Amino acid sequence: MPIKFVIIFILLFSIAGCSSLKEDFTVSPDSFIVIGHRGASAYAPEHTIASYEMAAQLGADYIEIDLQMTKDGKLAAMHDQTVDRTTDRSGAVQSFTLEELQQLDAGSWFNREHPGYADPAYSRLKVPSLEDIFQHFGSSVNYYIETKSPDLYPGMEAELLRLLHEYGLIGSKKDNARVIIQSFSSKSLERIHREESDIPLIQLISYKEKAELTDHEIKKLQKYAAGIGPNYNMIDEEYVKKARENGLLVHPYTINKQNEMEEGVAWGITGAFTDFSDTLTEVISNHDQKE
Ligand code: G3P
Ligand code: CA
């Protein structure tokens, strides 16, 4: 075969290989994921498009989105039930329509509280709806979405699944880890699992004391969840080992110190939420080079 055909064949084969890797992307215990907590929230106002863009640039495999619901039933990205902390107004998210919510300044608070990272442009940032985020990023990023306060917002899960379908982000067996859904509410996750059993679900857990995982809890979790998201400061190596031996992914929140990132990785966690995606990406890269 002439050499130029051999080169073309090799090139085509490599391109096909790359694209199938992306399409077959799955959450695997063998590959660690960096989760950009509220975007790159150490460096930019949390839950804004700017914060999510920065997280992706800093190496996050997933952008993390907390969801609340507006008066007119739209899903919006915000951590708190009220707008008080992260905008220039006060009140419950559910007392605003989406249009009203998007009049608010979602960035000036950050400039005041983090002068080292302040940017005048942040004062023009808006609260994005989930649909805004999907329109902006499409399938160029992976999404790690939390149903916050689902008891307050009937229909939240149905609206989330509707949007995920509309934007073609779920439904493909090949691409089943484009979206991960997390919640502290097992009821919310079970509702999603009944509708869409292919979406990987992470049960968030907030331990008040040293974490323990009983066999009974593991059996319950295995019915609907792909893994758990415990608070990092209450877990240890034994906890991680037990979860992983039972086939559960372990994605602790929120690890911001480099020494804790290294410790968690050595214990065998399979991903972590961080405000510093750049640091965690570097920790993983150094860890991989040593292996
Ligand atoms: O979702 C994981 C972690 O983000 C949970 O804590 O309060 O930041 O949503 P919170
Ligand atoms: Ca969260």
Structure description:
There is one protein chain. The protein has helices at 3-23, 49-57, 98-101, 108-113, 130-137, 156-166, 186-195, 215-222, 237-245, 258-267, 277-290, and strands at 33-36, 62-69, 75-77, 142-147, 179-183, 201-205, 227-230, 249-250, 271-274. The protein is globular. The model is unreliable at 3-25 (pLDDT under 50). The two termini are 40 Å apart. β5, α7 and β6 form a beta-alpha-beta unit. With 291 residues, the protein is an alpha/beta fold. Strands 1, 2, 3, 4, 5, 6, 7, 8 and 9 form a 9-stranded mixed sheet that branches. It contains 11 helices and 9 strands. Helix content is 38%, strand content 14%. The structure holds SN-glycerol-3-phosphate (G3P) and calcium ion. Calcium ion (CA) is lined by residues 64, 66, 146. SN-glycerol-3-phosphate is lined by residues 37, 66, 79, 146, 182, 204, 229, 253-254, 273.
Please tally the β strands and state the result.
Answer: 9
**SSE series:** HEHEEHHHEHEHEHEHEHEH
Structural category is alpha/beta
Summed up, the helix count is 11
Summarize the structure.
The chain has 11 helices and 9 strands. It has 291 residues and is α/β, with parallel strands linked by helices.
Give short descriptive properties of this protein.
291 residues, disordered N terminus, binds SN-glycerol-3-phosphate, alpha/beta
Secondary structure elements and their pairing?
Layout lengths: L2 H21 L9 E4 L12 H9 L4 E8 L5 E3 L20 H4 L6 H6 L16 H8 L4 E6 L8 H11 L12 E5 L2 H10 L5 E5 L9 H8 L4 E4 L6 H9 L3 E2 L7 H10 L3 E4 L2 H14 L1
Parallel strand pairs: 1-2, 1-9, 2-4, 4-5, 5-6, 6-7, 7-8
Antiparallel strand pairs: 2-3
Helix pairs in contact: 10-11
